[in-house]
Design goal:
- There is one protein chain.
- The protein is an all-alpha fold and about 325 residues long.
- It folds into two domains: about 1-170, no CATH class; about 175-334, no CATH class.
- It contains eleven helices and no strands.
- It has helices at about 5-35, 65-70, 80-105, 115-140, 145-170, 185-215, 225-230, 230-260, 265-290, 295-315, 320.
- Helix 3 (about 80-105) runs antiparallel to helix 4 (about 115-140) and helix 8 packs antiparallel against helix 9.
- The longest helix is centred in the middle third of the chain and has 35 residues, at about 185-215.
- It is flat, with a radius of gyration of 22 Å.
- The two termini are about 40 Å apart.
Length: about 325
């Protein structure tokens, strides 16, 4: 029996959410790769040391493997099975995300007549994840050039926010719009918050690049000296987070005055404040406890989540205006 459109729409929404979560997982794993210095664990792409299943011991490699797998004319570091498999797992998860986004695109065919933008944006997400895979190969080919790593991260944020927009749009006939007063003020504050968060991510990227250089120079030892070697960028990045927290607390205050206390907006803004507090906390742990490796990917993930929740909150505030051509008005939930 052929499934009806309502069933297919539900499948798209459900799988779309799963895909968004999976992309955030990939961002977390990417952070693990960087924090462990495993970015060049596989010196070639798409295979790893010329194999589809990477080696687990140096005995499985030719004696002159450093010469064979040169990157930009330079010999690679000594083989490290741990780093090799971390990078390889990162690639496998990346391929899995590609399949997830492809399935999301296939499911979006059910919206072709109803809302073609859902279909087109799902297709664009699929194209972008393919480009992201290619960009990953460039990151390896350029021996982890900082600018390429940053572009790789920015594109991941673009993909996840594009998916957030598309999946949110797909809810247009089942989404209960909320009565929101003073939208102009809320939009202004939230837009400023998003702008500052983007600046914070750029500052964090500079700190991250400095840590990469310092850690590589010290062969990932003497972690307790890394912070003091970073310099002014770290202290600006740390102080900027307090400004962002203050603005989000103010945003929450304004929201509570202009929407229902148990509204969807209040829930997501509460989540934003919690995420920012957690982000600041993770930064403090890194600053005062010698940048533990497990905290670096968590810090990165929290930053990515903050951007996503900010964007979702902005969409909810402006749902009627952004999607007005597709919305069938429904009563507000009390």
């Amino acid at each position: 029996m052929r499934p009806n459109n309502d069933t297919m729409h539900h499948s798209y929404r459900k799988f779309g959410i799963i895909t968004i979560v999976a992309v955030y997982l990939l961002i977390l794993v990417g952070g693990v790769v960087r924090s462990t210095g495993a970015g060049m664990g596989c010196p070639d792409w798409p295979r790893c040391f010329g194999q589809w299943i990477p080696p687990t011991d140096i005995s499985q490699l030719p004696a002159n493997y450093k010469e064979i797998f040169k990157v930009q004319g330079k010999e690679i570091a000594d083989f490290d099975a741990f780093k090799t498999w971390i990078e390889y797992v990162n690639r496998l998860i990346g391929v899995l995300i590609g399949f997830f986004i492809f399935i999301t695109f296939i499911l979006s065919f059910s919206f072709f007549k109803k809302d073609r933008l859902v279909f087109y944006l799902s297709f664009l997400s699929f194209i972008l994840v393919g480009f992201q895979g290619w960009l990953g190969s460039v990151v390896v080919a350029t021996n982890l050039k900082p600018m390429m790593i940053t572009l790789h991260m920015i594109l991941a944020l673009v993909i996840v926010n594009l998916l957030i927009y598309t999946v949110t749009r797909s809810y247009n006939t089942v989404f209960h719009t909320e009565q929101v007063a003073n939208k102009k003020l809320l939009n202004t504050i939230l837009t400023i918050c998003m702008g500052l968060m983007l600046v914070q991510i750029v500052l964090g990227t500079q700190v991250r690049e400095a840590i990469d250089e310092i850690s590589a120079a010290l062969n990932y030892t003497m972690r307790d000296t890394w912070i003091e070697k970073i310099g002014l960028n770290f202290y600006i990045h740390r102080s900027f987070s307090l400004l962002i927290l203050a603005l989000h607390i103010y945003l929450l205050y304004i929201l509570k005055k202009n929407v229902q206390m148990q509204s969807r907006l209040t829930v997501w803004t509460n989540a934003l404040v919690i995420l920012i507090v957690a982000e600041i906390g993770s930064g403090a742990v890194m600053a005062y406890f010698a940048i533990p490796a497990f905290m670096q990917p968590l810090h990165l993930l929290l930053g990515a989540l903050i951007i996503g929740v900010q964007f979702l909150t902005l969409l909810i505030i402006n749902y009627q205006r952004v999607f007005k051509s597709q919305i069938e008005e429904v009563p507000v939930l009390v």
